[in-house]
Amino acid sequence: MTGAPASDSSGSGIESVMHEDRVFDPPASVSDSAHVPSLEAYRSLHERSLQDPEGFWSDVAMELSWFQPWSKVLEWDAPDAKWFVGATTNVSYNCLDRQVEAGYGDETAIIWEGEPLEPGSGPEVRSLSYRELMDETCKLANALKSLGVGKGDVVTIYMPMVPEAAVAMLACARIGAPHSVIFGGFSAQAIADRVHDASSKVIITADGGWRRGGIVPLKANVDEACQQADCVEHVVVLRRCENEVSWTDDRDHWWHDIVDSASPDCPAEPMGSEDLLFVLYTSGSTGKPKGILHTTGGYMVHAYLTSKMTFDLHPGRDQVMWCTADIGWVTGHSYVVYGVLPNRVPTLMYEGAPNWPDPSRFWQMVERHKVTQFYTAPTAIRAFMRWGDEHVTGHDLSSLQILGTVGEPINPEAWMWYHRVVGGERCPIVDTWWQTETGGHMITPLPGATPTKPGSCTLPFFGVDAAIVDEKGVEQPADTGGLLAIRKPWPSMLRGILGDRERFIETYWSDIKTEDGTIYYKAGDGARRDADGYFWVMGRIDDVLNVSGHRLGTAEVESALVSHADVVEAAVVGMPHEIKGEGIAAFITLGPGASPGQDLAGLLREHVAKEIGAIAKPDQIRFADALPKTRSGKIMRRLLRDVAAGKEKTEQDVTTLEDFAVLAKLRESEEA
Ligand code: PRX
């Protein structure tokens, strides 16, 4: 990054060698008892949801509990939406009290499996009923209140995947303190940036978290972050790993000291529908990650309905929902916690890694807990394919009913493997397209209704008016690529970017405008629709990478690299990667005295991990004398992508001799 304007688009991803034209009908075993039992039923309900969105969403919202009803379902003044105007509710109430008050307090709310400490050792398993979860939530909520946390105060959560992470989210929601969950793999610097941006005064963390037999030093990272973020007044620390941690007396509090003695009685605060529920940071094409804002009523209703419909959840049917995402991502927010609990189906959480202590961990868990709904990312599916079918087939997976994927396009090979080896050719696959900004599923099959095509996320969810358009909002003909846009408001849409109205408008609401001045939501993905109206998402059209289903801005990785003393200029592009979908390639020019090579590449990788987190480490680093640029000084990323992908020839326009020379040198440059 050199201050030059953002360059042309990205959108690589792994290249498919398989062609799969078959259409997979929903199995009768699922359709017969599904909420939406046929394509016709889906179509008529979808049509109703678009014709009469207020009537549709009002009916859905009435399935949940509200303290005060709404006076109006929707107020839309693009790009500002207000849903369930004038109503009050509480998401924590809908997850917990609602079940307890209806007499289901003893049913299981959360099943949790800790990381087995060594091969062959039995895993640590805990299960919490709705009543237990509510008691823990109330106690923490009271403890937070005693630290001075009130309505509107942002609380940062930086936790391992333990039930207390969900407790922390629910406790914040209960007292109206918006949370900002930070993925446990992010660095101290990333915490400091987010805490500072949200002016967060309280951080909830743990001494550590287990991962692959080692301890992730969460508390130490928080300590380091606090040196920069001086807005932090209190740090609540859960004891998980019993590791030594340093302590700041007037700031740090052990969870057990302040929570165990707190009262389990904490009535849920009535929250306005449009009160902030959470901030969640995600990467964009420029600058630092942005804090996406989600509010209470609309998010709750959308997360509830998508969980119910996409995974066909039915309370009382012995289902167990396992979404493998960490709560640090939006998928964990919506499909580990907020969408599942109001549906009264147990949610499974796990700590650690899918292949620790061995590659059969997931499938042992499916068997042990009789998982019925399983939701993961294509990158995990590809890794399992590589590790070998025997780890999967050696387990009884007959409990599985529905399989889901999210986060990136799924290649047909991975889809077919998932269908055959994991699903035993009997489980529908729901390939769900959505984003941090959308809060919940937007385009997805419904398991009892939608015939699926490997690689397509199929048809829009209820209330979602998705289209492939050009910049004037004109819908593109079948099989023609274009911008993926959403033309009407939906309940869980982002309400803004924390502290940056201009960026909100510019990023999502400026590029697609119809002749009559209507603006559409721009998702930032390129896609096409086929003749059956099915959506095929190709990938990002901006400078956002999708690495293992996680978003990273090229600009973020570049600024991490140029913050190293030896680096003068850095350009980061995506490259095809067999497991991650997209890998990270960095082209770097060095200052005088620095010597290119493996050693420096290693140092730079560590530097990026320290600045952002291990997920941002470049897979490929190439040192160059110069980077190819246009005459106006823009880095020619398309060329770099071709080099990173190992293409011998480029189809890009290379016009100047200087470009040729630079390009030839880059090709010769060694990958470090
Ligand atoms: O490019 C799309 C891709 O992931 C992006 C959203 O990333 P994030 O906000 O981190 O949320 C991920 C989990 C919801 C999208 O812009 N993406 C997500 N799901 C799919 C997908 N691409 C293709 N198919 C999907 N099912």
Structure description:
It is a single chain. This protein is an alpha/beta fold and 672 residues long. It contains 20 helices and 30 strands. The strands form eight sheets. An eight-stranded mixed sheet has the order 12-11-8-6-7-14-15-23, sandwiched between helices. It is globular, with a radius of gyration of 24 Å. The structure holds adenosine-5'-monophosphate-propyl ester.
Describe this structure in a few short sentences.
This protein is of the alpha/beta class and 672 residues long.
Q: What share of residues are in beta strands? A: 15-25%
What small molecules does this complex bind? adenosine-5'-monophosphate-propyl ester
Broad shape = globular
Give the mean pLDDT. 94
Determine the oligomeric state from the structure. Answer: single chain
| Poorly predicted parts | 1-12
Strands side by side in the biggest sheet: 12-11-8-6-7-14-15-23
Number of helices: 20
Largest β sheet strand count, sense and barrel closure? 8 strands, mixed
